[in-house]
Amino acid sequence: MINLNPSAMAMVPFVSVQDMMKIVNSIGPRQMMREICAYIEADFARWPLFDKTPRIATHSEEGVIELMPTSDGEYYGFKYVNGHPSNMARGFQTVTAFGVLARVSNGYPVLFSEMTVLTALRTAATSAMAAKYLGPKGARTMALIGNGAQCEFQALAFQEIVGITAVRLYDVDAQATHKAAKNLENSGLDVMICNTAEAAVTGADIITTCTADKQNATVLTDNMVGSGVHINAIGGDCPGKTELHRDILLRSDIFVEYQPQTRIEGEIQALDPDYPVTELWQVITGQLPGRSSDRQITLFDSVGFATEDFSALRYVRDQLERTGHHIDLDLLADPDDPRDLFGMVNRAKGVL
Ligand code: NAD
Q: pLDDT-based confidence at 352, cuts 50/70/90?
């Protein structure tokens, strides 16, 4: 890049996909999810501070494109993310994302980052955080139904943060299950490949559903869920896209991220709009109980909320010095004389 006038631009750290992979591999995925979990938990603990809105979703036949903004007053963040269940069959990712963190005081971005990998890390960290508060004590076995892009991240986060030692994998596509089993080979987890969802949930203390289907699917039926289980349902996250039979919801105590968004997108679409649910931040701050009995079924009806992405971006920004993996992007025009934007362009004529 020819640098005409360094002060004509404000450089913004950019974390590419390659940089993110270097960051994950230098810190280690499990440690990184533990650390992101701490950031997410710290931000849930100061929940009332945040500007909150259900995400802005643009739906099409094939999927959805969403913007997820929030701010704590000091920083503002947003994520651009798609959700296209039909993508996989066409060779594209179901979920891809990128995001920005900016300083509220002058509006200048302080980080621009890939967020496809980061979303998988933050989703698994959030799931594990919820299970820490809601899961049965001493949970060791988790069923993982849906073995796509999110799957191994979920397995490793639950191993690291919850103490899971065994995972039971099931996917309608056996290739996905074999891919996940291979990726988890040296994880220290006891990995069991199952041929049905029923087999996968047998003996599981925690059931994670992370399937992608643009319909009200029934990945779990009522008879598959025994008392005392914690369900981590992450694949039902759009209007008309759910995973659980309604009867399971009626037997469960339901915990959500941000109620106004989950009413639109989560499993609780199937319930009356005033059906009681608890927001997770209230459990984290000790205002309301999480799990209160061994027989209780707890359900984390996860859709993914903007503060989780904000926390993840905050975390990545704080790692830039530690890892060094980023480049500085010439993203913002910033002329010496703030009013002389035209002059800056004009002076570049013949030089650039
Ligand atoms: P993916 O397409 O990579 O994987 C989904 C897997 O589900 C595929 O392997 C598919 O074969 C399998 N599947 C579909 N229907 C099934 C069924 N009935 N039983 C068993 N397996 C089935 O998708 P992904 O990136 O892993 O995402 C999984 C889901 O999680 C998506 O629905 C996505 O929108 C959602 N998601 C939620 C959050 C959140 O914060 N809650 C974050 C990221 C992704």
A: confident
Our mutation pick for probing the ligand 1 site, out of 94, 214, 245, counting the most ligand atoms within 8 A of Cβ, is: 94
220 three-class SS: strand
Place of tokens 């599981």: 204
Task: Name which residue sits closest to atom 13 of ligand 1, judged by CA.
Answer: 211
Q: Which residues are catalytic?
A: 237
Which residue has tokens 């909150």? 52
Nearest atom within ligand 1 for CA of residue 238: 34
Q: Provide CB contacts within 8 A for 272, sequence distance 6+.
A: none
Name the residue with the closest Cα to ligand 1, atom 15.
Answer: 211
Eight-state DSSP code of residue 274: T
d(C-alpha 265, C-alpha 301), whole Å: 10
**Residue 84: its pLDDT value, please?**
94
DSSP string, 115-172: -HHHHHHHHHHHHHHHHHHHSPTT--EEEEE--STTHHHHHHHIIIII---EEEEE-S
Residues 6+ apart with CB under 8 A from 14: 112, 113, 326, 327, 328, 329, 331
Q: 212 C-alpha vs ligand 1 centroid, how far in Å?
A: 3
What average pLDDT does this structure show over 120-148?
A: 98
To test the pocket of ligand 1, the residue of 36, 211, 305 to mutate (highest count of ligand atoms within 8 Å of its CB) is 211
Domains plus CATH for the chain? 6-117+307-341 (3.30.1780.10), 128-305 (3.40.50.720)
User: Look-up: residue for tokens 């039979």?
Assistant: 245
Q: Which amino acid appears at position 325 of this protein?
A: H
Distance between CA atoms of 38 and 15, rounded to whole angstroms? Answer: 21
Q: Which residues line ligand 1 (CB under 6 A)?
A: 83, 88, 94-95, 119, 123, 145-150, 171-173, 176, 210-213, 217, 219, 234-235, 237, 302-304
Quote the DSSP letter at residue 20. H
8-65 residue pLDDT tens: 668 999 999 999 999 999 999 999 999 999 999 999 999 999 999 999 999 999 999 9
d(CA 206, CA 212): 19
